[in-house]
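G., the chain you wanted modeled:
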Amino acid sequence: MGEVLSTDTSILVADGIVLGCTAVDRRDAIDQVGRQLQALGAVEPEYVTAMHQRERSVTTFLGEGVAIPHGTDESRRFVKRTALVALQFPDGVDWGGADVRLCIGIASKGNEHVGILAGLAVVLLDPGQARKLREAPDSDTILRMLNHMDEELSR
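Predicted structure as tokens:
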């Protein structure tokens, strides 16, 4: 597991974090996550369709106000490079009855994202840390929190 660095070849970069988003529903939020992955050059447009397919088959809601929209296994062919994006929805999004405040979108060619997701799981086990992540005032806070957890897990 490597460190999450703020460079354009990293899995999670500051340009992939958008605060203060609003969405009318879960579909809109997933579209926004997909557009952000496209803007970073990580996926082709077809990947967004696969993200909706994944959501229809099984919810990507993790708990503590966090969802991790991602495509199906078959959609990996539409991934140009592994990347994560984080979109914050301060007013919440109805996620099939759950309230989501942070979406971490995943585009993965392999297992490069596993360290960050393991770090995210650790953060979500602590309600106080989960709240800090959901309510982060800036992208550096999100990068720092996930980077720190990834470093801790790689020791």
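Residues 1-8 have pLDDT under 50 and may be disordered.

Shout if anything looks off.
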